[in-house]
Amino acid sequence: MAPAWIDTHCHLDAPEFDADRPAVLARAQAAGVGMQVLPAVMAANFDTVRQLAHAHGLAYALGIHPLSVDRSADADLDILADALDRHRNDPRLVAVGEIGLDFFVPGLDLARAERFYQAQLKLARAAGLPVILHVRRSADGLLKGLRRTPVPGGIVHAFNASQAQAEVFVGLGLRLGFGGAMTYDRALQIRRLAATLPGSSLVLETDAPDIPPHWLYRTAAQRDAGDATGRNEPAELPRIAATLAGLRGWTLEETAATTSANALAALPRLAALVSPARAG
Ligand SMILES: [Zn+2]
Question: Among 49, 95, 101, 46, which residue's Cα sits nearest to residue 70?
Answer without folding.
Answer: 101
